[in-house]
Amino acid sequence: MKKIGFLSFGHWSDAPGSQVRSGSDALLQSVDLAVAAEELGADGAYFRVHHFARQLASPFPLLAAAGAKTSRIELGTGVIDMRYENPLYMAEDAGAADLISGGRLQLGISRGSPEQVIDGYKYFGYVPEDDSSDAEMARRHADVFLQVIEGGGFAQPNPRPMFPNPPGPLPIEPRSPGLRERIWWGAGSRATAEWTAQQGMNLMSSTLLTEDTGVPFHKLQAEQIQRFRDAWAEAGHAREPRVSVSRSIFAIVDDRDRAYFGRGGTEDDQVGVIDNTVARFGRSYADEPDKLIEQLREDEAIAAADTLLLTVPNQLGVEYNAHVIESILTHVAPELGWR
């Protein structure tokens, strides 16, 4: 059994064929797709966060809106770039959105991916300390965020406040109990996965790894997952961790699918360079259900994960993307034991 959700990048453009032509379209259709996915029996609605781009950016208004219109489906991010975040304000936003959703947030956070502008976090007012990197700054922001959502008091109260204070230092409000256990770190390497386990965060692994050992992507990602689980056990955390992987998977069941994806997925990994680092990109899948099932049986990382996020082509609109999700849930997942 697996939890199966979707991951949307939330692109919008006025390109021919796009059904998402504005920021308003992207946001409202994201909520509509979360509602549709819940009705289909999917388990998660996750959204990518990118700044300075015609894509989804500030996630908490979207998560709160989706939370108010759904009742069961998990709502998450993949991922929030912590270089850009004020961790205290983020803790307030996260607490509020989680309470609105009834405790269904699953927040993926990380250092983030290459952005549209050079050192974009500086425009948000965040600059790494001397002799420190932007990745280290992201981890510091994350550490503060994780501490304050636990609910401990740390701020010295005013002796003459406008409203009465409880005794002792004050915490961030509102606090949503249990949110700390629903934070994920987007790890791009085996070493980062081990660090994630040590911090007590769930593991979120996407369709690329910022390292290459020459083995197929799914095998390298499966090793990353195993290293995470081993490090989690060694750290002695009381709860069981969660692990998600992302994949582009399309079951070709009608003429629309054949028009969009009839040429099939990429059968081989790709190796490239990101931020001067060699990276391995995983393949995509597109085929008729019976062939797709056989291909997916060989993916060791999907087998090792408890959560699968289907990356969806959001510019094709809510109705078609709901069809993409339903095709996997109906024609593929039961045959693989995911349902």
Mind explaining what this structure looks like?
With 339 residues, the chain is an alpha/beta fold. The protein has a single domain (3-336), classed as TIM Barrel (Alpha-Beta Barrel). The chain contains ten helices and 13 strands. Strands 1-2-3-4-5-6-8-13 form an eight-stranded parallel beta barrel, surrounded by seven helices. Strands 7-11-10 form a three-stranded antiparallel beta sheet, covered by helices on one side.
Helix content: 25-40%
Which CATH architecture would you pick?
Alpha-Beta Barrel
- How many domains comprise the coordinates? 1
- Head-to-tail CA distance between termini: 5 Å
Keywords: Monooxygenase, Oxidoreductase
Protein name: Alkanal monooxygenase alpha chain
Enzyme class: oxidoreductase
Domain Luciferase-like: 16-258
Topology:
Elements: E1 3-8, H1 23-40, E2 44-47, H2 59-69, E3 74-81, H3 87-101, E4 105-110, H4 134-148, E5 183-186, H5 190-198, E6 202-205, E7 208-209, H6 217-235, E8 243-247, E9 249-251, H7 255-261, E10 270-274, E11 277-281, E12 285-287, H8 289-297, H9 300-304, E13 307-312, H10 318-332
Parallel strand pairs: 1-2, 1-13, 2-3, 3-4, 4-5, 5-6, 6-8, 8-13, 9-12
Antiparallel strand pairs: 7-11, 10-11
Helix pairs in contact: 1-2, 1-10, 2-3, 3-4, 5-6
